[in-house]
Every structure is written in structure tokens, then in C-alpha cells.
Amino acid sequence: MGTAFMNSNIEKLFSIEEAAKILRVSGRSVTRYIESGKLKASKIGVWRIKESNLNAFLEETSNVKSKKK
């Protein structure tokens, strides 16, 4: 008999396509952000982006846009 447990500290992971929808860019743009080091991600067979990394990227890019104004 196995014991199941739930860890509330597990962070949501997004696929390239999911991140692209959130960022409102193409999947290729998300891949370029990852490859350039602008967006942190892990390759677990396919690229996965932690929710905290996606939020940090959104915050950083919105700060850059507001500084340009």
C-alpha cells in the first residue's frame, strides 16, 4: 500500500506554448528568451518554465518598457 502525499511547495511549470500565451508572443520568441538567458527554464525532455521565473521575466520586461517612456 503506497502513501500519497501532497507538497504545496511544488511550483507550476509552463510549456513554451503556455508561456507564449501569457507573454503574448510566439513560441519561437519564448525559446529565444530562454536561449539568450533572459528567461530561466529547465529542459526536462522539453523546456519548462517555473511560474516564478515567468513572473520575474514579466516584471523585468515591464520595467524596461516603462523606463523607455
TrEMBL record:
Superkingdom as given in the UniProt entry: Bacteria
InterPro entries with a match to the protein in the record: DNA-bd_dom_put_sf, HTH_17, SinI_DNA-bd
A Pfam family assignment: HTH_17
Domain Helix-turn-helix: 13-61
Entry's Gene Ontology molecular function annotations: DNA binding
Protein name per UniProt: Helix-turn-helix domain-containing protein
Source organism: Candidatus Gottesmanbacteria bacterium GW2011_GWB1_43_11
Taxonomic path: Bacteria, Candidatus Gottesmaniibacteriota
